[in-house]
Write a structure and sequence with these properties.
By secondary structure, the chain is an all-alpha fold. 49% of the residues lie in helices and 0% in strands.
């Protein structure tokens, strides 16, 4: 169930009252997502798709999403996940929620992936 209000804000005051920096997920992505492709000059789903199609099975790549807090990084990643989860195993991890971000090792990330897999299977 969504915590967002039943309608979009109609004015600046309503927008300020419901402003929340949490990423959009699930049905809220379809309902509240605003395509800012023209302003950003990018489309994450298309670019990730191009990388995945060109990727060889034995290789890997790193994709970096950057930006200030609240600019939509996590929302875009949720959209990418939603688009590709039928074709790929997608795991969304928020390292800040799972571990101390200043004291993290690759083993911590492996353990987060394993725990995530246990919850999804």
């Amino acid at each position: 169930m969504s915590e967002l209000p039943p309608h979009k804000a109609r004015n600046l005051e309503e927008a300020y009252e419901i402003c929340d920096l949490k990423p959009l997920q699930g049905e809220d992505i379809d309902r509240y997502y605003i395509d800012l492709q023209k302003a950003r000059s990018t489309e994450a789903i298309i670019q990730v798709g191009q990388i995945l199609r060109q990727q060889k099975a034995e290789s890997f790549c790193t994709i970096l999403f950057t930006g200030h807090r609240g600019c939509g990084k996590s929302t875009e990643l949720y959209r990418v996940k939603k688009n590709w989860e039928k074709d790929y195993l997608t795991i969304f991890l928020n390292a800040e929620e799972e571990t101390h971000i200043n004291d993290i090792s690759y083993i911590d990330i492996y353990l987060m992936v394993i725990r995530s897999e246990e919850h999804t299977s």
